[in-house]
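User: Let's play a game. I give you a shape written as tokens, and you guess the letters that built it. Ready? Here's round one.
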């Protein structure tokens, strides 16, 4: 026993000696073996084990470097690994050199903690992760026997996954998944065994990790993420939602001759695969209400409804779209849309800056300035923020890091913030990208009224504790002593940029269709693919070709058959929430709903010190005092307004709509629409029709007419029926058909 203890003491000393003298040299000389495996490594192989390409996948496969284990920011049990092996050099040091080198035993490899703990031969907080006879354990043991060196023979170039897309007709069949790694030396290797396949929805797809097979449990379109080293590749599984193929000649289910060939072709292609029939085209009244709300944020007035319904011109819908796109109401509403996107007014104490910024943006929209030029203006802006509107872009956030996160989400649709503390676990972004972009933006001082370029500003990279090099994310490093914004904006607005145009047309698509082709709209990544990738590319290319003109893209979407579909679902497509077989119902934005209530009641709301009659969509300061907007869930713009505000559909809003002063104090007020109609001696029947036209932009159906005849004395004076008429108005303003754009 004493002899064994003495041997172990000597072993530890030898190990420490090797760690101090030999291993550091092996780690940093960069020398690589000329040998390269030509196939899957096996435990009885004599080939040199590559720490990065052979061992890191093991830690990932068994969850050792996941966020719930040693890959968390604080690590677990004194062992801190980089998340999903994003930093192999740091992982090597943590395993081999830290903890006094006790995790590796070169004399008795099978007594190394890196073996004993995951096999539960000694106490391990994570329990047993590996079996002693498992291939992974044998690989680790052989690596230690070879001296636990940091060998990297070549770099991973890409991983080829098979299949990338699979259309499944029989859910009982399992699909074999395969991963082939391609390396910089031209070799390939089957890495299926060490690739992690994870379904986004575990209730829809089952994965057998031992055989790397997938089985679809629920039909639809579902994504599997395949991860090997830093590469994460999405796999798309599609299974028809119905058993009966749809008839591509059905006029009610296919693109008409007046629709957009590309948009409707791509939508229909996927609907056919999924066997989802499309709902019929919406009637004229529905289309009029929908497009007027989407393009101007307003309800059509009763006379406009009647004229449109009586118009027999086959091209009246396109004429309507053109008229709305050139209206002042469009300028006003889409200024609000972009002001929310740019977070104009989200900073307290900068009311003058908010005013000039908003007015500048409004002028850009009115003049039809391309979105690329808008981006260029704000990114390159400097000067007095009380006089130069775009300069307020740099007063949006308190730090350069927050500004980098904001810019990437805004102009790239990418959540770069995930790469602040570690490389993005689901995307290509690295800490170098995050802190490199921050290094560009930190040279702009936006903390004072006058925005100016600073000299000698720098950002410390948290991983290296050295000055971060300015870097265009995912592209290239810049010269550190120059203002890199010009290169950044040139890269962003280049026609071949893979993010800029796609991110914006995706937002336009969501504004019109109720859901982005990529959702969430600020989370573009290969592992979050678009529902219709070819359509997204087409819209983006067309957007660039037409000078980044938002009116052009909005018109294309508005005149497509997909946009014009009814929101009334069919039994076969009732559960479709992303393939556009029917129109999605969209909650009216708080500002639009507030204005709609005022318009129907003909009783304007009051907003702070603004003149009576000011519309909510025209407010410049998002903090303008308004109980109505607070109830309806407005966004303060301190952060992104693109996620659903919890209060928008919350209990507070519903209670006020049902029983609060927002409606009850205004429905029968003197001078309002109802009061004027009663005073003009209109019959109850006529009053009902007027309010249906004003609120729902249609006439009541026969069923609705009969209902009101049972509750209102149509032969009595309207004045004697005022309480019942007030209830009628209240019911219209609280129904889903009114508060939603359908």
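Assistant: Ready! My guess for every position:
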């Amino acid at each position: 026993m004493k002899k064994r203890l003495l041997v172990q003491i000597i072993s530890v000393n030898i190990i420490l000696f090797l760690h101090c003298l030999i291993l550091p040299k092996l780690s940093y000389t960069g020398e690589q073996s000329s040998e390269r495996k030509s196939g899957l490594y096996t435990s009885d192989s004599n080939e040199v084990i590559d720490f990065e390409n052979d061992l890191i996948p093991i830690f990932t496969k068994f969850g050792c470097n996941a966020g719930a284990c040693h890959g968390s920011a604080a690590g677990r049990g004194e062992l801190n690994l980089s998340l999903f092996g994003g930093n192999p050099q740091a992982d090597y040091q943590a395993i081999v050199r830290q903890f006094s080198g006790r995790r590796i035993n070169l004399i008795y490899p099978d007594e190394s903690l890196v073996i004993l703990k995951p096999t539960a031969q000694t106490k391990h907080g994570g329990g047993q992760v590996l079996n002693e006879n498992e291939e992974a354990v044998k690989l680790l043991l052989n690596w230690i026997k070879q001296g636990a060196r940091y060998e990297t023979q070549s770099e991973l170039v890409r991983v080829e996954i098979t299949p990338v897309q699979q259309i499944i007709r029989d859910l009982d069949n399992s699909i074999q998944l395969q991963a082939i790694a391609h390396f910089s030396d031209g070799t390939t290797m089957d890495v299926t065994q060490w690739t992690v396949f994870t379904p986004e929805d575990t209730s829809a797809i089952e994965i057998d990790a031992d055989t790397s097979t997938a089985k679809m449990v629920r039909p639809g379109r579902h994504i599997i993420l395949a991860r090997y080293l830093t590469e994460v590749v999405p796999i798309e599984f599609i299974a028809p939602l119905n058993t009966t193929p749809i008839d591509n000649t059905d006029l009610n289910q296919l693109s008409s001759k007046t629709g957009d060939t590309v948009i409707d072709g791509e939508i229909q292609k996927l609907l056919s695969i999924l066997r989802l029939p499309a709902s019929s085209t919406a009637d004229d009244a529905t289309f009029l209400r929908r497009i007027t709300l989407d393009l101007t944020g307003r309800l059509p007035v009763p006379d406009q409804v009647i004229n449109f319904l009586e118009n027999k011109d086959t091209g009246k819908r396109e004429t309507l779209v053109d008229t709305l796109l050139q209206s002042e109401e469009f300028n006003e509403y889409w200024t609000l849309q972009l002001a929310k996107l740019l977070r104009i007014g989200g900073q307290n104490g900068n009311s003058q800056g908010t005013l000039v910024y908003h007015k500048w943006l409004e002028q850009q929209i009115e003049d039809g300035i391309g979105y690329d030029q808008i981006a260029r203006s704000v990114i390159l802006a400097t000067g007095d923020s009380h006089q130069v509107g775009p300069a307020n872009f740099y007063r949006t956030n308190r730090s350069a890091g927050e500004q980098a996160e904001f810019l990437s989400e805004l102009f790239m649709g990418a959540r770069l913030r995930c790469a602040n503390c570690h490389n993005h676990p689901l995307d290509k972004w690295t800490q170098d990208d995050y802190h490199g972009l921050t290094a560009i933006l930190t040279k702009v001082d936006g903390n004072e009224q006058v925005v100016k370029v600073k000299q000698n500003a720098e950002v410390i990279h948290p991983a290296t504790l050295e000055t971060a090099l300015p870097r265009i994310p995912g592209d290239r490093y810049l010269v550190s002593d120059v203002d890199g914004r010009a290169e950044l904006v040139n890269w962003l607005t280049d026609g071949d940029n893979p993010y800029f145009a796609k991110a914006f047309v995706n937002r336009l698509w969501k504004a019109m269709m109720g859901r982005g082709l990529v959702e969430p709209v600020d989370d573009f990544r290969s592992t979050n693919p678009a529902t219709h990738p070819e359509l997204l590319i087409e819209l983006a290319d067309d957007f660039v070709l037409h000078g980044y003109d938002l009116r052009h893209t909005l018109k294309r979407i508005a005149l497509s058959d997909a946009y014009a579909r009814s929101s009334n679902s069919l039994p076969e497509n009732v559960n479709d929430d992303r393939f556009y077989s029917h129109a999605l119902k969209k909650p009216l934005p708080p500002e639009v709903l507030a204005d709609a209530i005022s318009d129907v009641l003909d009783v304007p709301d009051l907003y702070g010190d603004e003149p009576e009659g000011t519309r909510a969509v025209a407010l410049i300061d998002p903090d303008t005092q308004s109980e109505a907007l607070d109830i309806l869930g407005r966004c303060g713009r301190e952060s992104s307004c693109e996620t659903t505000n919890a209060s928008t559909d919350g209990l507070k809003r519903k209670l006020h709509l049902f029983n609060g002063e927002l409606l009850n104090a205004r429905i029968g007020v003197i001078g309002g629409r109802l009061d004027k109609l009663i005073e003009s001696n209109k019959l109850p029947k006529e009053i009902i029709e007027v309010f249906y036209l004003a609120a729902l932009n249609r006439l009541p159906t026969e069923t609705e007419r009969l209902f009101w005849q049972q509750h209102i004395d149509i032969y009595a004076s309207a004045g004697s029926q005022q309480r019942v008429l007030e209830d009628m108005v209240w019911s219209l303003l609280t129904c889903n058909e009114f508060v939603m754009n359908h």
